[in-house]
Every structure is written in C-alpha cells, then in structure tokens.
Amino acid sequence: MAQRDDGYRRTAGAGARAEEMLPQPSRRPESSDTVGTRRRARAGGVVMASPYAWPYDGQLTPSRTALLVLDMQTDFCGKSGYVDRMGYDVFSTARAIEPTRRLLEVVRSIPELTVIYTREGHRPDLADLAPNKRWRSRQIGAEIGAQGPAGRILVRGESGWQIVSQLTPLPGELIVDKPGKGSFYASDLDLILRSRGITHLILTGMTTDVGVQSTMREANDRGYECLILEDCTGATDIDNHIAALRMVTMQGGVFGAVTSSDQLIRALLRLSLESARQAAGEPQLNGPVSTRYERGEWRMPRNIHIDDARPYAFASRLSQTALVVIDMQNDFCSPGGFGELLGNDIAPARAIIPIIGEALAAARAAGLMVIHTREGHRPDLSDCPPSKLARSRAQGAGIGDVGPMGRILVRGEPGHAIVPELAPLPGEPVIDKPGKGAFYETSLQELLEARGVTSLIVCGVTTHVCVHTTIREANDRGYECLLLEDASAAFDPADHEAAVRMIWQQGGIFGWTAPAAAFRSALQDR
User: Fold this and answer.
1) Is residue 288 part of a domain?
2) What is the distance, to the nearest Å, from the Cα of residue 521 to the centroid of all Cα atoms in its chain?
C-alpha cells in the first residue's frame, strides 16, 4: 500500500475504507479530552470521526439529525446512466450502494431520525436547465435531455433519474428534487430541515467532489453541523474522492467531519441501547437550462476570448462579465491574521497579490465590472453559526477573539480589511458575507442581475474553500465561471491543485480555469 505525502493512505481500488483514507491519528499519548471523547462515543453521544468527534457539541440527538441520501440515481451509479455514458467506470460510484443500504437498515430503526433523499434532474421541457450546463453535457457525449439507454438523461420521471432499486425510499421518507449540484439551491430542503428542528446532517451519495461537496458547503454556510461518510460516497475519480474528503477535514474541520458508516452505526446502536436502558430505569453505561439553442445555433458572444483555458476555450461578452476578487483580506493574507493564527503558511496567499493587482489593472482599463468580497461577522457574532465559532476556538483562533489585527473575522476590524495593494476603488462593490460562499446571505445575485452579468472571472483565497464554494453556488445559478489559476491560492498547494482540477474536469463541470496572463491578454486583444 503506497503512502501519500498528505497524510492519507490510498489503496489500488476505488473501494478503500475511511480508515485507509482519513488522516491517520497521532501516536502520542491520549489527553484527558481524548479519553473523555471516547467515553462519550461509547455512550453514543458522539461519533469517532476526523478531525474531531462529531458532532462538535457532543450531542448526537436523533430528532435533530437527518440522513441525506444524495443523488443515488441510476444516472450516477448504474449501468447505462449519465456517468456510464460519459465513459467513467461506475464501480467508483456504485461502491457506495451496499454500505448505504446497511446504514439505512439501522437508521430506519430509529424513528426520530429523518431520512431525506435527493434527485438531480430537470423538467421534461428542460425549462430549469441552464444553457451552459446543457452545452457542456453535449460536449462530452451525454447531453442532458437526450435519449439514452435509461431514458432521457437527467430528466425527471425517466428510469435513469430514479433512485437505484437497492436504496428505494420507504413510504414517508422525503425526496427533494433539485436542478443543480447543491441540494439547497432552488429546492425546499432548508425549509424542511428548519421546520423539523434539524441542525445536524449526515451526508451520503453522489458524487463526493460534486453534488455531495456542494451540498455540504451550502449546509455549512447555513449553520448545519455536517458529517460525511467516506464509504457511502463515491466519485468518478478516486483522487477527487480523496481530495474532497481532505478538504472537509482541513483547518480543524472547515466544513465538518468525515467518518465511516461502521463508526456511525456503532454510535447509533449504542445510542439506541442507552435510550432503552434509561427508559427501563437502568443506569447509564458510561455517562453521559432559447429556441436558437435548441436548434444548436447558440454561441457565446466573443468580446472576451481565452484560448489558453481548460478544458476548452472560454468566451464571454465584456458588458456581461465581472471580475470577482474573493476575500483578499488581512485575516487571510497578512501576518497576524486568522489564516496565520490557524498555523497556516500564508506565503501562497501573499504570492498572488501582485498577480491579482495586474488582473485588476487590466479589468479596470477595459471597463470590466469589478467586485470584491470579504468574509466576516457582525461585532455581536449574531450571524456566526455556533459550529463555526466552536471550531475556530478549538483551533486557537476564535472568531471574535482579539488578535494582532483586532477581533478575528469581525467586520470593521483591521484584519477584515482588504490588503492595501488590492484596495477597492470608489464605485467598486464590496460584498460582505458571513459564510464561505459569496451568494449566501448577500446581495451578490441581485447585483449581478441588475448589471446583466452572466459570466464571472474569479480569483482570490482560498481556492478550495471560499473560491470553490462561490463558483459552485454561481454554477448552480447558471453563471459561467472561469478561475484564474495563478491568481488564487490555498495554504497547501495540494489543495489548490485538487480544487483547480475539480473545476475543469468532466468537460468543465463547474467552468473553466486559465492563467491570469491569458485573461489580461484577452482584454487587450478584444
């Protein structure tokens, strides 16, 4: 078994278990906190996971928890489905079916725990299919809406759109239909969860790096505490699967935690046993998408054209394009900021400042709309989810705590400001956001719609967290996105490279990537 430099172990097959993929635990003697966590796990209070025992608050409460079975459809994990038609080995996705089936048997024995399925697909008239999504699917030989062996691809009501037979929902189990990768956009999922008082989500399904991660990111920004099950998820590429899991666990669990179905089942069974003992009065065991398009005549307007883009040339109309600079703040890019206090090397974030500066100068000279974003919270932290706050404190850099650059990630503080080299000019909008994505709880979409913007050139930090979440949100809303590869950065170059690849894979599932120099050249050549 080959060892990976990032602390993961990888097997030759796609069926590696969570224990083989997750960061390996330290061999140092256990602290009293660790011992206490294991005791709570034995009592069913938490699930042993990485990088922390889940949930963060130590309260695994079935009535506040939902199991999400995401897009376990024939189109994604069955023969003759969408993934199969794209030329991928469906074993890499179908691997998750049997572990999920076993998990459902246990979960269904706990009435208080909610089970929710999702299905990605579109109306038969394709009225909810973004033109760019359909165009990309056509380029890879699996056009959404086209007839295939399992019916019309990714169309509601077709056999390929159905949940695989092994995981058929039972009567009363909820099904959320969605047109995008993320399960919250253009669906009633959030309303369902909040009306039931659900705060904790367990994620399974397809695919780890696309639908599952997009849903987890959306949930995280909404304050849900998330756990992803490695063996109950799958991707078309094992490296993307591993990279997606790693992105969850970094920075103390920036999106939540990762574990295996076995660990979760142990905790649920123990919790059921403990509840039964208490009901019997026995003591606790261990304490607490126009007509033109339909005719195949639709083309992108060619005012900006970048040949040196992946996976193919990018084109957009200048007046409908914006440059979005994500979170180039002192807290992420300067000494003494949040990023450095977390123990990260901020050199990659510092290195892209002059590159973004050149991109900004070119955009301003061309009259391109420029938008800046800043992540941060109100001084009273009323917009900071408890889970996010707790994780930051556990890493020794609590949001709202006083640091070398003022209160960490708080609006108005020096750390919250954009680095002076990239300071916004008068008239350039600055979007303040409480989460990783720039669309959640902000006016960004309204701003873009008011200006008629349909294409986004994105750069900033960090590639795999805020930049990626924003691109995913934009993609589900029908925006064309291009990431400037060398004008974005992560604290770990491996995370940056993995995130870049996720954007242009599968014919550009989230959009394009290109060097900043190609963007500047396109503005000069138009």
Assistant:
1) no
2) 31
Whether the Cβ atoms of residue 359 and residue 516 lie closer than 8 Å to each other: yes
Paired tokens of 27: 């061999």
Asked whether residue 389 is domain-assigned, the answer is yes
Domain containing 129 equals 47-279
Residues 166 and 56 in one domain: yes
Among the listed residues 123, 132, 115, 118, the one whose alpha carbon sits nearest the alpha carbon of residue 218: 118
Per-residue pLDDT tens digits of the chain, which is 526 residues long: 233 333 333 333 333 443 444 444 333 444 445 545 555 555 457 999 999 999 999 999 999 999 999 999 999 999 888 998 888 888 899 999 999 999 999 999 899 999 999 999 999 999 999 999 999 999 988 999 999 999 999 999 999 999 999 999 999 999 999 999 999 999 999 999 999 999 999 999 999 999 999 999 999 999 999 999 999 999 999 999 999 999 999 999 999 999 999 999 999 988 877 776 666 665 554 443 333 333 344 343 348 999 999 999 999 999 999 999 999 999 999 999 999 999 999 999 999 999 999 999 999 999 999 999 999 999 999 999 999 999 999 999 999 999 999 999 999 999 999 999 999 999 899 999 999 999 999 999 999 999 999 999 999 999 999 999 999 999 999 999 999 999 999 999 999 999 999 999 999 999 999 999 999 999 987 5
**Cβ atoms within 10 Å, residue 23:** 16
Task: Kindly state whether residues 145 and 54 are assigned to the same domain.
Answer: yes
Continuous H helices in 405-481:
444-451, 468-476
Angle 235-501-423 from CA coordinates, rounded to 5°: 130
At 191, which CATH number?
A: 3.40.50.850
Nearest to 120 by CA among 83, 147, 172: 83
Specify the amino acid at residue 420.
P
Give the chain's domain count: 2
145/154 Cα distance (integer angstroms): 6
Helix crossing, 261-279 with 97-107: angle to 10°?
Answer: 10
User: How many angstroms from the chain centroid is the CA of residue 218?
Assistant: 7
Active-site residue list: 327, 433, 466
Can you give the three-state secondary structure of 66-102, one letter per residue?
EEEEECCEHHHHCCCCHHHHCCCCCHHHHCCHHHHHH
Helix axes 213-221, 468-476, angle to 10 degrees: 100
The pTM is what? 0.80
